[in-house]
Write a structure and sequence with these properties.
alpha/beta, four-stranded parallel beta sheet
Length: about 350
């Protein structure tokens, strides 16, 4: 290494300015500050705005989400990031008066039984009296505490887990639409460990998901009086829309570090550094982070790492459109006593879910 290389600022290029890219860039900025490193950071985004799929629009006093509308609290990192960047006071919980949800069956909306948490019940009476499930389906789910835990190590699909522990009807009528509404994906291809690790932990710890959920519910009720600090339900949002988070992350990056309308054609290795080729120029960097979809990463890597590109290219992605509809309250005949509804795949409809945005959050 010559003298010029020793004196050069370390440089990193982050490709992609969605939430993953911006969070990575923010973390790099924090680490550099903590270690007193003068980091040369560049974030490249192909589109004309940062934020990726997270986009919030304010119109006529309403906040319209063009992508996701919630942060899942069971995966604590989203809330932790909001807290770290000073957005904790902007977090809004779900409205306690409208915490239910519905499932489509035929041409009707059936309420999800009180205490039913994504995959399994934690309260007996609401589950037994629910009209969402058949008698046979209820009996099969009620047998879940008698099902022995899986002995084999390793991961399994979420669908396999639900069928094994709760039966086919639980998968078709509640787990698939609930998970599909969150991940827009087929549970047959979703890793249980990656998506719903809590339920795997319940099986391992208590030998039963239902038994574990009931115990967790009792502990939660007893902890209400002693808990300190904010407590959140399964979902939270930001008062001005989820785009507040990528906007704040962008504010905390070094000025001028973001370049929009800068699609990356490829990256290549040259003289112990990485060269990032864009449509306008080439950028030399000591490290590159690809925070883009797998198929986009494959295109960027194909000349430098063809084997890795070949593995990335076939990774499937689900396609979905978000449509915002605004009505006067008197135009809706339904009570709207809940967050919204989900639609099981077995109903064979083109809609996955509907959120009652005016009811969901305080």
């Amino acid at each position: 290494m010559n003298a010029s290389e020793q004196n050069r600022r370390p440089s990193v290029v982050v490709v992609g300015a969605g939430i993953a890219g911006l969070a990575t860039a923010y973390r790099l900025t924090r680490l550099a500050a903590e270690r007193r490193i003068d980091l040369d950071l560049t974030v490249l985004e192909a589109e004309e705005r940062a934020g990726g799929n997270i986009e919030s629009v304010a119109r006529d006093g309403l906040v319209l989400e063009c992508g996701p509308d919630s942060i899942i609290t069971e995966k604590p990192w989203g809330v932790a990031l909001c807290r770290e960047v000073g957005l904790e006071e902007r977090l809004i919980p779900t409205d306690p008066n409208h915490r239910g949800s519905f499932v489509v069956r035929g041409r009707r909306l059936y309420p999800v039984p009180d205490g039913f948490h994504l995959l399994a019940p934690s309260k007996i009476r609401p589950f037994v009296t629910s009209r969402l499930f058949s008698v046979g389906g209820k009996l099969r789910m009620a047998c879940e505490p008698l099902i022995p835990p899986r002995r084999e190590g390793g991961d399994e699909s979420l669908a396999s887990f639900v069928r094994r522990r709760l039966g086919r009807e639980a998968l078709d009528r509640i787990a698939q639409p609930m998970v599909g509404g969150v991940y827009t994906a087929d549970p047959e291809h979703l890793s249980l460990q990656a998506t719903m690790p809590r339920f795997l932990d319940l099986e391992r710890k208590y030998g039963s998901v239902i038994r574990g959920m009931m115990k967790a519910a009792r502990q939660a009720r007893s902890a209400v009086g002693t808990a300190r600090g904010p407590r959140y339900d399964l979902f939270v949002a930001l008062e001005g829309g989820l785009e507040e988070l990528p906007r704040r992350l962008l504010e905390l990056l070094p000025p001028g570090s973001l370049r929009t309308r800068s699609p990356v054609a490829r990256i290549r290795r040259e003289r112990r550094r990485w060269i990032v080729d864009t449509a306008e120029d080439s950028i030399a960097a000591d490290a590159v982070c690809l925070a883009v979809p797998a198929h986009a990463a494959a295109r960027i890597l194909v000349s430098e790492a063809p084997k890795l590109a070949a593995e990335l290219e076939p990774i499937p992605y689900a396609s979905a459109a978000t449509v915002n509809l605004i009505y006067r309250r008197e135009q809706i005949g339904h009570s709207l006593e809940g967050f919204g509804f989900v639609v099981p795949a077995i109903e064979r409809r083109s809609i996955l879910a509907c959120t009652f945005g005016s009811q969901k959050y305080r």
